[in-house]
Write a structure and sequence with these properties.
- The chain is an alpha/beta fold and about 140 residues long.
- The chain has a single domain, classed as Transcription Regulator spoIIAA, CATH 3.30.750.
- Helix content is about 45%, strand content about 25%.
- The chain is built from 4 helices and 8 strands; from the N terminus they run E-E-E-E-H-E-E-H-E-H-E-H.
- The strands form 2 sheets. Strands 1-2-3-5-7-8 form a 6-stranded mixed β-sheet, with helices on both faces. A two-stranded parallel ribbon has the order 4-6.
- Strand 2 and strand 3 form a beta hairpin.
- Helix 2 packs across helix 3.
- About 20% of the residues are buried.
- It comes from Pontibacter diazotrophicus.
- This is STAS/SEC14 domain-containing protein.
Length: about 140
Amino acid sequence: MILYDNGFIKLEYEPSTDILYVRAPDVHEYDLLQIYQAFNIFIEAVTNYDIKKCILDTSETDMNVSDEDHRIVMRHLGNGLMATRLQKLVRIATKDVARESGVKKYVKQVYDEVKPAGTFKNFPDKDAAIKWLTAN
């Protein structure tokens, strides 16, 4: 079931597994306000539908922002999700080794600052993510 799709961000919910699938938007300096709005829609959906498991698919996302802006955006998302009952967040990684190294560093920084209650993991593909999310 598609909860939201404006061509920039897409949220699909599967009630039988209680998994929200989010296709992450491209992130560019000139789109930062739109990124914040998109993540607010994402956070609102997690809250309103009481989502416990989520896949954030960044595998095809183009990232073109400064390191500081990237960290700020991640912190915004982390803080917003902290106010929800989300238990498991999975990120589908890109094939870009350098980018993934940076993401790993930022995730650790955000986790150290935000201290979320839920679990976060990176996976190489959607099938592996779903398998982990649906395992007891």
